């Protein structure tokens, strides 16, 4: 084995460089799948730390009141016949997408539970806090050819916080969303209404309104490689009949997709849609995704359950398929890149990580508005900046 002394000799010229020329963290991160195709990294089995709900007015509640119960139609030989366009647009209350909530609801949960967090003293200081959806975007980045992203990152009391920023292109797309796409978004939520009930053991009631302000969010703990994670994700429903009633293994993710008729259509579905479904449900440990396939008239006539842990099998032998190791290794590499970039502990300092298809992840530095997203924390008893400036606590019941 080469001695340290020999290595020092070999590196003599580098060592002689002035201190300010010492190697710095790379200013950009490549995304090529070939760079990340090593063995699957360590990923801790996700455990639920808690949950919260958002009501029809998008108000926060520190409980499971918005959790719904999986209630599929009886399997008596008949196929379902769900009209996903029913109620559109008259019984649709879409969430106001102009309101940028950033990490606010998750921060409120954290503020109310940081004293009782497991993992020992200092666990939170070493963790990364974000939404599940942001991690999903990181997982699929090596295979994404359409949509870029921006993630804002700040460090406070050790913890690295990651919050998505809507890209200018995404904003234009949202503001010019074609009517048919708006209706398609409604149809996804309508499917949930046909498949879920407000109480266990009762049938769904699709006669009411579809209000996308309502959400049930699970807060989870995991670890990717050496990165402890605390993240929250919206959960569609829990299955009262699941083999284990312990979250997150009782949770079910619901999706709709176009009915497929040719092997080519299925292949494309496995390559593109299943990647997104896998990434979203693997992260929080949701074991099953139930798909409703809609015909051109907007009716769901067939259902199929895709176990999350079996999704990769559909592309394992496909040269143009995706690989879970690539997704997870890239995510781990990004988290290391972010940890090494955001060195200063300062909630007013924001590093903006930007990615567009075809290029590497780049980074820029910002201070205060408009990118700063952490409130002064913790608010003292007489300090009013937060949570009052974020989500306002609901009146006592
Ligand atoms: P997902 O995995 O992309 O569905 O996102 P998460 O489950 O991580 O959701 C995080 C939070 O963002 C929840 O409060 C959701 O209600 C909210 N959310 C989900 N989708 C969207 C979206 O498309 N836009 C915005 N602004 N918020 C969303
Ligand atoms: Mg869903």
Features:
about 400 residues; alpha+beta; ten-stranded mixed beta sheet; five-stranded mixed beta sheet; 19 strands; about 25% helix; about 25% strand; globular; disordered N terminus; binds guanosine-5'-diphosphate; binds magnesium ion
Write a brief caption for the model.
With 397 residues, this protein is an alpha+beta fold. Helices cover 24% and strands 25% of the residues.
Can you describe what's shown?
By secondary structure, this protein is an alpha+beta fold. Helix content is 24%, strand content 25%. The protein has a ten-stranded mixed beta sheet with strand order 1-19-18-8-9-7-13-12-2-3, sandwiched between helices. A five-stranded mixed beta sheet has the order 5-17-16-15-14. Strands 4-10 form a two-stranded antiparallel ribbon. Helix 4 (132-140) crosses helix 7 and helix 4 packs across helix 8. The chain binds guanosine-5'-diphosphate and magnesium ion. The site of guanosine-5'-diphosphate has 11 residues, from helix 4, strand 12 and strand 13. Residues 97, 105, 131-133, 136, 215, 217, 233-234, 280 line the site of guanosine-5'-diphosphate (GDP).
Within the largest sheet, what's the order of strands? Answer: 1-19-18-8-9-7-13-12-2-3
The pLDDT mean sits at: 91
Number of helices: 8
User: What is the beta-strand fraction?
Assistant: 15-25%
Structural class, by secondary structure, is: alpha+beta
- Overall geometry: globular
Question: How would the blueprint of this fold be written?
Answer:
Blueprint (H helix, E strand, L loop, with lengths): L3 H7 L1 H5 L11 E2 L17 E8 L5 E2 L7 E2 L11 E2 L8 E2 L10 H10 L14 E4 H9 L8 E8 L2 E7 L2 H8 L3 H17 E2 L12 E2 L3 E10 L2 E8 L2 E2 L12 E8 L4 H20 L5 E7 L4 E9 L16 H18 L7 E7 L5 E7 L30
Parallel strand pairs: 6-11, 7-9, 7-13, 15-16
Antiparallel strand pairs: 1-19, 2-3, 2-12, 4-10, 5-17, 8-9, 8-18, 12-13, 14-15, 16-17, 18-19
Helix pairs in contact: 4-7, 4-8
The site of guanosine-5'-diphosphate (GDP) has 11 residues, from helix 4, strand 12 and strand 13.
């Amino acid at each position: 084995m080469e001695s340290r002394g020999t290595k020092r000799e070999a590196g003599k010229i580098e060592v002689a460089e002035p201190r300010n020329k010492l190697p710095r963290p790379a200013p950009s991160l490549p995304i090529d799948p070939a760079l990340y195709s090593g063995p699957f990294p360590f990923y801790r089995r996700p455990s639920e730390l808690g949950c919260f709900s958002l009501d029809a007015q998008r108000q926060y509640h520190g409980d499971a009141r918005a959790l719904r119960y999986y209630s599929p139609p009886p399997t008596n030989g008949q196929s379902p016949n769900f009209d996903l366009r029913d109620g559109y647009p008259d019984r649709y209350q879409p969430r106001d997408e102009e309101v940028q909530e950033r990490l606010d609801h998750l921060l409120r949960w954290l503020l109310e539970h940081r004293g009782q967090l497991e993992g020992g003293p200092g666990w939170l200081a070493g963790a990364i806090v974000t939404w599940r959806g942001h991690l999903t975007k990181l997982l699929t980045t090596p295979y994404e050819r359409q949509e870029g992203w921006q993630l804002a990152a700040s460090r406070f009391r050790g913890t690295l916080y990651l919050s998505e920023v809507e890209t200018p292109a995404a904003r234009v797309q949202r503001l010019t969303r074609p009517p048919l796409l708006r209706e398609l978004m409604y149809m996804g939520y309508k499917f949930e209404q046909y498949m879920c009930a407000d109480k266990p053991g009762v049938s769904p009631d699709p006669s009411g309104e579809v209000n996308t302000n309502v959400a049930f969010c699970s807060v989870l703990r995991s670890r990717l490689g050496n990165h402890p994670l605390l993240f929250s994700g919206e959960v569609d429903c829990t299955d009262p009949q699941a083999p284990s009633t312990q979250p997150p293994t009782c949770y079910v993710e619901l999706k709709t997709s176009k009915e497929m008729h040719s092997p080519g259509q299925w292949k494309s579905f496995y390559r593109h849609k299943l990647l997104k479904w896998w990434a979203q449900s693997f992260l929080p440990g949701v074991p099953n995704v139930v798909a409703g396939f809609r015909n051109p008239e907007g009716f769901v006539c067939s259902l199929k359950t895709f176990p999350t842990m079996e999704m990769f099998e559909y592309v394992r032998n496909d040269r143009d398929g995706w690989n879970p190791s690539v997704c997870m290794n890239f995510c781990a590499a990004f988290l290391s890149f972010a940890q090494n970039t955001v060195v200063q502990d300062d909630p007013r300092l924001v590093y903006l990580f930007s990615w567009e298809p075809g290029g590497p992840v780049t980074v820029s530095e910002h201070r205060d508005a408009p990118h700063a997203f952490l409130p002064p924390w913790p608010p003292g008893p007489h300090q009013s900046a937060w949570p009052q400036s974020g989500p306002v606590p609901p009146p006592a019941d």
